[in-house]
Specification:
- It is a single chain.
- The chain has one domain.
- It is built from 1 helix and 3 strands; from the N terminus they run ββαβ.
């Protein structure tokens, strides 16, 4: 049933306003995400290959953009 299902994007692309119903999305700060990923890769490449890397958790700024599909 279409009324019992909600669809949401996680890219924040503006194309979500051109579909029916307009797509609710989670807009991420892709520049911050790319910088964080780059920094982590550099850190991993500098670590000894026999060293276990710690599990990490990072937060990226985001914004929920509620449209018609939400």
């Amino acid at each position: 049933m279409p009324d019992s299902c909600a669809v949401m994007g996680i890219d924040g692309l503006k194309i979500g306003v051109f579909v029916e119903p307009e797509l609710t999305t989670l807009r991420l700060d892709f520049a911050a995400f790319a910088q964080m990923a780059f920094d982590e890769v550099v850190q991993m490449s500098e670590a000894a290959t026999t060293t276990l890397l710690p599990q990490i958790r990072k937060r990226i700024s985001h914004e929920l953009v509620v449209r018609e599909s939400g």
